[in-house]
Design a protein that fits this description.
385 residues, alpha/beta, TIM Barrel, 9 strands, binds iron/sulfur cluster
């Protein structure tokens, strides 16, 4: 049983035979991708407050020390990103700051907000006005929280990390896989194109990795909303000295992801944290976001490689490098897809949603202005590294 499965009423049936099959997959069993993609983004570390204390994480700050970007600071970052030719504002957060973070909540109240999510709405509006597409990763979210901000995001995300109960998540406030799956389910029910992934090397077993990937597959089979799955190795930092998985283990984990997931779901390895060149033949087809203007605030010790580095990875692999938006093209309506789009359109979203992206996001992409032109140039394949 996955920890938290009952509490969140989110049953995932992972078949034992499927786990066994996946455990036998090796890099030689999967085909390398025919092209690699990336997104041009800016990191917006909206708040470093987090109710959890994962032992491998340097992102969160304790109560009293956590930061909260002001609307003016957000505007400055996203404007700089838009000026530099980015298309995505990647909002990073801790997970729903609890009531120990009095200063953060006081500040939010001063700005007229009773929750982080209500504030996210305001900063997404700022972002769209400045010409970037928001992609928010606010940790675990209830359906109501996600619903409050979904229409202002091109896509959203949360790492599943693992379905296992690992010590790295231990402590008085324990992050539960069931809650993560609940968030992924909420996104599916709301028709939100979604990014998730596994974290490799935090104490999980190979069996756990296989189960985690198959749980993601099951969520995607139910709702069709998982656009990409990140395979991210844990890395040493000031809070984690447990080391990273070996290249050989990472190659196997990436190959398992490629094998477990349907073809339309991208498999991503973040080149600032993983030896992308050494796993590029294991089925990855995306290199994540690259930022010309801000550091990777989640892992500040590991600066994003320059765009040239991504080109060089693609060149070494002998495949083209293509820029993409934070929402994958197959989730866009037909009139916004490029003429040479040859993928499988995502079909209708589940539930009551009439489209995978809201009218606000569709309008932003099709707008007859500088930002709209930038987005459509990316969709049209006109922009590369
Ligand atoms: S990994 Fe995420 S949930 Fe865990 S402490 Fe860091 S910010 Fe919080």
């Amino acid at each position: 049983m996955i920890p938290g499965e009952d509490a969140y009423d989110v049953t995932v049936d992972v078949d034992d035979d499927a786990v066994e099959d996946l455990l036998s997959v090796r890099p030689a069993d999967v085909d390398p991708a025919e092209e690699l993609s990336f997104a041009r983004n800016v990191f917006v570390p909206l708040t470093t407050a987090c109710r959890y204390t994962c032992t491998y994480c340097t992102y969160f700050d304790p109560p009293g020390e956590a930061s909260l970007l002001s609307p003016g600071e957000v505007r400055e970052i996203v404007r700089e990103g838009a000026d530099a030719g980015c298309t995505e504002a990647l909002f990073t957060f801790g997970d729903d700051p609890d009531d120990r973070y009095e200063r953060v909540h006081e500040q939010l109240r001063e700005w007229g907000h009773d929750s982080v999510h209500s504030y996210v709405r305001e900063v997404c509006e700022i972002t769209l006005a400045e010409g970037l597409l928001p992609h928010a990763n606010p940790g675990d979210q209830t359906r109501e929280q996600m619903e409050l901000v979904a229409d202002l995001n091109a896509s959203m995300g949360v790492m599943l990390e693992t379905t296992a109960d690992v010590d790295a998540h231990a402590g008085p406030r324990r992050k539960e896989p069931g809650q993560r799956l609940n968030t992924i389910r909420n996104a599916g029910e709301l028709g939100v194109p979604f990014t998730t992934g596994i974290l490799v090397g935090i104490g999980e077993t190979w069996q756990d990795r296989a189960e985690s990937l198959l749980a993601i597959r099951e969520m995607h089979e139910r709702y069709g909303h998982v656009q990409e799955v990140i395979v991210q190795p844990v890395v040493d930092n000031e809070r984690w000295s447990g080391g990273s998985p070996s290249v050989e283990d990472l190659r196997r984990a990436v190959a398992m992801a490629r094998d477990a997931l349907p073809e339309e779901v991208s498999v991503q390895v973040p080149p600032n944290l993983a030896p992308a060149r050494e796993v590029v033949d294991c089925g990855i087809d995306d290199l994540g976001g690259v930022s010309p203007v801000t550091d990777d605030h989640v892992n500040p010790d590991y600066a994003w490689p320059a765009l040239r580095e991504l080109e060089s990875i693609a060149e070494a692999a002998g495949v083209p490098l293509r820029e993409r938006l934070p929402v994958y093209e197959r989730y866009l309506p037909a009139d916004l897809r490029s003429d040479d789009f040859d993928g499988e359109p995502a079909g209708s979203p589940p539930g009551e949603a009439d489209a995978w992206v809201s009218e606000r996001i569709r309008d932003a992409i099709s707008a007859d202005d500088e930002a709209g032109e930038r987005y459509r140039a990316v969709i049209g394949g006109g922009a590369d590294g």
